[in-house]
Amino acid sequence: MFFASILLSFFLVSQTILDCISSNSNNPKNFFVLFAEHLYCIEVVTAAVTLVALAGVDTMDEFIKELDPNLDYLEHKIIGNEVIIYAASNRKICRCPYCGAESARIHSRYEKSFQDLPIMGKKTKVVIENRKFFCDNPDCGFTTFAERFDFLSQKGKKTKRLIEKIVDVSLNTSSTTASRTLKDGIADVGKSTICSLLKKRYASS
Known about the structure:
Radius of gyration: 22 Å
Number of helices: 6
Number of strands: 7
Order of helices and strands: HHHEEEEEEEHHH
Distance between the termini: 41 Å
Helix content: 40-55%
């Protein structure tokens, strides 16, 4: 289905160019106006096709489970150039990161959002229904703890695989160029963040 949406976009753009040329061969100004209007229509159509392509629960659930098998896909939205995916953990028991004790008692729930690798050229944000658990270990210095995931640092706003992509793009170019390239369909990241990530990469190597 993804491939079909790409082919449809290519066909519509090609057909638009031919139609505009035939209708405005003697008036270049009208050609560009009409072409711009056609491109807007194409964007709407291909967005709809992409929405249909992404609508399969199995496909989206598989994408989420690539991050963590314990995550379940709930729903998604496409807003402009961004795909927002909502997910929730299916773990029944979580381990306290401070003492290692297991707990099934939920204290509270809250939304945790972060950026991930793009889908079909659209930036991706994942929103998880995260949970806090009670720690019942009397010897632990903490009474509650938040659910954690290996693909994301404790207070991270970008997945580890997205960070790897950002670093790869930024290695052989300036932070300004890298930021501009990344914002064009990959992720919103500033120059200072890029510099910080590169320093961490070099420090660990």
